[in-house]
Amino acid sequence: MSFSQDLWQANQALFQSTLELPFNQELAAGTLSQERFRHYMIQDAHYLVAYGRALAVTAAKSDNAEGVVQFANAANEAVVVERALHGGFMRDFGITPEQFAATPLTPACHHYTSYLLATAWSATYPVAVAALLPCFWIYAEVGRDIHARSAKDNPYQAWVDTYASEEFHAAVRGVCATVDRLAEETTEATRAAMHAAYKDAARLEWMFWDSAYRLADWQEALR
């Protein structure tokens, strides 16, 4: 078993729990409320900018030129997707640029982005890459599951289709390969830190979707 496969197996129960979240169940069924979907899109756009920054920092830490290109390209793609949200899905679902700009990060989004940025800046390259992997991998596999059972005439089908892109799955395989190489070349202590970073980020993936379904904000968190 490769190191990345070991990461996946160690967090299999958490992934299953993510699949079973009401947000993902209702997205596949086409019954998710537009209010919840809009909430998710706004937070996802905020998230992608921070994720792009974390990817760029990680690119600068790479131990070879291939890694610089890999994570710099991923950073560019995150920001491109964030820009596309404004001209596509947000416009289609009635979210204005002013509304987006006026909506702060939720506690879950703030927690997740802060964790990724702090890890990218302060941790070693292998640990930073391990922390970034869940967003690639779990998102892709949740997307594959939703795409496979998406309801006929799903109003969110265009969004669901983006989950299943082969280009995105190819990027996942590339990051897994980098994680495997780094794990093979490092110490047992670093491999343990990679496991911990992956698990923390996987938990935050779960929290992000759960928060979107609950329409969570700071008022709720402070009650």
Describe this structure in words.
Helices cover 83% and strands 0% of the residues. It has 13 helices and no strands. The chain has one domain: Up-down Bundle (Heme Oxygenase, Chain A). The longest helix has 28 residues, at 34-61. It has helices at residues 3-10, 12-19, 22-29, 34-61, 65-87, 89-92, 97-102, 107-122, 125-149, 157-163, 166-185, 188-214, 218-222. The chain is mainly alpha-helical.
What is the secondary structure topology, with strand pairs?
Blueprint: H1 3-10, H2 12-19, H3 22-29, H4 34-61, H5 65-87, H6 89-92, H7 97-102, H8 107-122, H9 125-149, H10 157-163, H11 166-185, H12 188-214, H13 218-222
Helix pairs in contact: 2-12, 3-9, 4-5, 4-8, 4-9, 4-12, 8-9, 8-12, 9-10, 9-11, 9-12
Characteristics:
Heme Oxygenase, Chain A; 223 residues; single chain; 13 helices; mainly alpha
CATH architecture: Up-down Bundle
User: Roughly what is the average pLDDT, rounded to an integer?
Assistant: 93
Largest sheet: none
> How many beta strands in the DSSP annotation?
0
Class by helix and strand content?
Answer: mainly alpha
State the end-to-end distance.
45 Å
What is the CATH T-level topology? Heme Oxygenase, Chain A
The CATH superfamily bears the name Heme oxygenase-like
The fraction of residues assigned to DSSP E strands is under 5%
CATH class: Mainly Alpha
Q: What are the secondary-structure elements, in order, as H or E?
A: HHHHHHHHHHHHH
Number of helices: 13
What general form does the structure show?
globular
Poorly predicted regions are: none
Number of domains: 1
Rg result? 17 Å
What portion of residues is helical? over 70%
